[in-house]
Amino acid sequence: MNNIQKIGLTLFVIGFTIWVATLSLGKYTLTEGILSDTVNVKKEHYDLLKAKAEPMFGKSYSTAFEFSNDFSKIQEEVNEELRKAEKDDQVIYDNYAFIVTKASSEGPITEHTFLWFWLSFGLAIVGALMYIFPNNRLLPGIKNDHIYHHPATSRGWIGILLGTFLIAFYVVLYFYPQYIVNWVLLVDPISEALNGGPASQWFLYGFLYTLCILIMGIRMIIKYRHSPYEQIRSVSVMFFQTSFAFIIPEILVRLNQPYFDFKNMWPLDYDFFFDFNLNELLSNGTLGLFMLVWGIALFVLAVPIFTYLYGKRWYCSWVCGCGGLAETLGDPHRQLSDKSMRAWKIERYMVHGVLAFAIIMTAFVLYTYFTGQSNIGPVSSYSVRAAYGFWIGALFSGIVGVGFYPLMGNRVWCRFGCPLAAYLGLVQRFKSRFRITTNGGQCISCGNCSTYCEMGIDVRAYAQKGQDIVRASCVGCGICSAVCPRGVLNLENADPHSRVMVAPEIMTGNDMPKIK
C-alpha cells in the first residue's frame, strides 16, 4: 500500500465515521403544526393521534430513537383502543414514525446539510477513489494473492464487522427507518433536484446502492483492465443502475408519472401485479399502459428470446441491479461461494422453490384483483403476499442477500433466492445457445477459475474433463475466463444441440478436485 492509498483509506474511514456519527446530531421536537402539516398523515388519523400526542408537543428529544419510540407507542395506543372498540377498519397501518421524526428534526444536519454531506459522503468518496486508482500501476492480470488470508476477504474480523454492519443497516432500513432520519436528511437536496420532493428511506437506499456500484465499478474496470469484456460489462451495470434504476424513475415522479424501473421485471419485481401498482399504471393513460405492456413483455418475450441467444448473462451480469451490486461491491468476496455438491443441491431446491412461491403468490394476487375476493378457500391472498414480501422481499433479498456478502460470497441471493434467476436459468439450461467451452489439454489446475466463480461452480472440474459448462446457475460473468492464465475457458454462443450437458449426478464429490 503506497502513501496515496494510505491517505485515501484514512479519508474514507474519517468520512464513514462522520456519516455514522451524524445519527447522534440534532434534536427532535414535535409541535401540533408539524403533525398537522405533515401531509402524509391522513386527516382521520390526525384527529386520533393529536389527542394522544399532546404530551409530546414542545418536548425536546436528543435522539431519534427516543423520539420515535414515544411516538410509536402513541400510535400503538390508538390502535389498541380502536381494536377494543371493534373498529378494525380504522386501525393505522401507516408508518408515521418516520415522516414525523424527520419533520421534527432540527439542528446542524437540517441547518448545514451540504456541509455534513461533503464531510461524510464527500470524504468517503474521495478516499475510496484515492485507494482504488493507484492499483492501475500494478501489472494487469489476476493472481490469488492473499485473498484467503486477508481479514476482509476470508471471513476474518473485518469481514465479520462489515457483514454485521450491512445486516444491521438492512434491518433498520426495512423495519426502523425512523432511526436513520439524519442520513435521509443528508440526501434531501439530491431528492429535491431529481423528483422535486423530500427524500425517503428508499431514496437514500437507491442513492447508496448506485454510489456503491459506481465506486466499486471503477475498481472492477481497473482490476480487470486486461479483459475488454469485463470492462464493458462493468460500464453496463454502472449505466443501467444509474440511469434506469435511479435517475429515470425519480424524474418520472417529478413529472407526475408512476415510479417505474424499465429494466426490472416480474418475478424479481414481485409487486408488479399488486393492485396498487396495476391501478396506478392503468390510471396514468398511455404512458402507464405502455409501462404495463413493457413489464409483461420483458418476462414473456425478452427472457426466452435473449436468454436463448446470449444466456442469462444478458440480464444477470449486464443489466440487473442485484447482479450489479454483487459484481462490484461484492467482488472482493466472490471466492467465498461454496463449491460443494451439497451447496449445489440446496441451491437448486431453494431457488426453484422461491420461483414457485412467487408464481403462487402472484396467482393469488391476480385472483383478488379480478374477482374482488381476498380468500381462496381458507387462505387470504393478502397474507400470502405479505409473507412473500417479508421473507423473500426483505429478509432474503436484502438482509441475507447483501449482508452475507463477507460470509457466503457475493451471489447468495442470485444463487439461492432470486426467482428471476431461476426462470432465466431454466431457459439457459435447456434452450440456449450460451455455453462456456473448455480446453482441458491446456488446463494446469491452478484453480483460479473455481476460486473466482461467484456462483459456486467448480469450473476446474469441468475444465479438466474438457466438458462444456452448461449450468442453470451460471450468470456468464466471464471472470473464470478472465482469470485463466492459459485461455482454457471461452464464453460462446453456438447451436444448443451441440452443447455437452452434464447431469448433476455425474459430477460427484469424488470426481471434483478440491481447491487447496
UniProtKB/TrEMBL annotation:
The keyword Lipoprotein does not apply. Keywords: 4Fe-4S, Electron transport, Iron, Iron-sulfur, Membrane, Metal-binding, Transmembrane, Transmembrane helix, Transport. One of its GO terms (molecular function) is metal ion binding. InterPro entries: 4Fe4S_Fe-S-bd (IPR017896), 4Fe4S_Fe_S_CS (IPR017900), Electron_Trans/Redox (IPR051684). The chain crosses the membrane at residues 7-26, 114-133, 154-176, 202-222, 234-255, 287-310, 349-370, 390-407. Gene3D superfamilies: 3.30.70.20. Pfam families: Fer4_5, Fer4_9. Residues 434-462, 465-494 form the 4Fe-4S ferredoxin-type domain. One of its GO terms (cellular component) is plasma membrane. PANTHER family: FERREDOXIN-TYPE PROTEIN NAPH. This is 4Fe-4S ferredoxin-type domain-containing protein. It comes from Persicitalea jodogahamensis.
